[in-house]
Amino acid sequence: MYRHVYYLLFVVGLIGFGHRTQGAESVAAATVLDRPNILIVLTDDQGWGDLSLNGNKNLETPHIDALAATGAQFDRFFVCPVCSPTRAEFLTGRYHPRGGVFSTSAGGERLDLDEVTIADTFKAAGYVTGAFGKWHNGMQYPYHPNGRGFEEYYGFTSGHWGHYFDPVLEHNGALVRGSGFCVDDFTNKAMEFIEDSVKQDKPFFAYLPYNTPHSPMQVPDRFWKKFDGAELGLRNRDPKKENVQHTRAALAMCENVDWNVGRLMKKLRKLGVADNTIVVFFHDNGPNGSRWNDEMRGRKGSTDEGGCRSPLFISWPGKIKPDTFVTQIASVTDLLPTLTNMAGINLIGEKPLDGMDVSSWIADPQKEHNNRIIINAWKGKISARNQQYRLDNVGRLYDITKDPRQDKNIIDQQPEIAKLLNQAVANFKTDALQDYNTTNDGRPFVICHKDYRWTQVPARDGIAHGNITRSNKFPNCSYFLNWISADDKITWPAQVQHSGRYRVFLHYTCKEENVGCRVQLQFNQSTISRKITEAHDPPEVGAKEDRVVRAESYVKFFKQIELGEMDLKAGAGELTLTVPEMPGDEGIEFRLLMFQRILQTE
After folding, report:
1. Between the chain's N and C termini, which has fewer beta carbons within 10 Å?
2. Same-domain status, 194 and 253
């Protein structure tokens, strides 16, 4: 049988797992061969109210709701206002400014390399580790998930993707074409990974950071037809702000997520490992639209309750009592210390955590609340939350237990509480925000690492000069166009990590009348160039599948050609792409460079 021996601590009734501090011996070290599996599902831009469990009668999410019914549900669990910071805090157990995350694109989403991740920790304990979906904490290795403890990766590393049906994705760095709707595809790949680990009799750590219901609002017909034109019984607290069609699309995407969670649970049962798998479900921020969210103030991007409150469900049959309801406030930073303790493994990082082990409240939900304060911060907006009160980013105080809408500022009635929370904000500024750059931290893009075969250098990270423009103001999944002068160029601040020979591929479009233009790439003393000899002028895709007109860029299926081979020396420099010869009115449209290591010379 596959690891069905129960931990001694559960046999003797210590379902609380025991609070374990960093560096302490494992509470279940004697059962190293019987670790529980870990399955994490993280959704993108799904609000706390986007579940039928939480009272939303506009949709049905029976499979996700069942996770709460079979395990623990946290009433007040807090994440960050946007995507990449939440992912960084989940990975490290530390506030995201400590790891250098200051943006959601163009390199600002990267997690510093001296941070130890949850995948590093479980891998060190003998787990096979895999991630499937939207990474959003660094593209180029070693920022890439394969460099952060995940042995297997399938998905995309950018902040959002431009097309959800049969898109261009990557598998361990190499570009591949996805199959079908991306969330279904991510789930399929995760289930294959889980099944392979079971066959090898190894515990798995599987992380599924889905990219929905983030825009563009695309969803298969089978989920959309229920909501197309449907009347919504529950609306946003300010109905005038709500885009009803956007809400319908988001709800359809949430039902697709629920269906995939059901498939995952069915696979665990079929493989006989459901009882020995800890399943965790949460969201990365508030809803990406003004829709019903139990009338909480704030949405995605806000540090108010509605922008940072997420569901958290943790299921472990036989170990966590069904219908456990935890009222102790908790943070996404808590998942690392909590899950490692539940699994009986040691933390391997040396940096202090901001999160705490909350497993004792899972064991005993009636345990007295502690006096912790959770900070929610983004782009200069900082709020502080204790068990009862929230101090918002402009210094107003609310008793959330009596005023969940944040309507009545009670700072005059509770000056001591306000003072306490203001001090927590001040401490956060002098501690976590020390040396934190919120615009440009100067880190170059790492290319050409000896331990990784592939490096992506996308338009997203480039700087346009001259007439060149982006396909959209949002860099993620954009491309460059309007290359009308030989003086135009695209540059990237880059760092060649290791000397060697690298084959370079270019992803481009070119109209028939512009064939013959020459594309040149230079890094320090190394230069390669090639004439474009074949037209490739595909249409933009995405509009036909969108349920709501998007704000982001549409995309194209770009053509890949080999640009040449470069001998690169380790060091910093400026990677520069030009079109020095242009027989037509324009050069190329540019999407991506791919570097393939073919010879290591260092």
Report:
1. N
2. yes
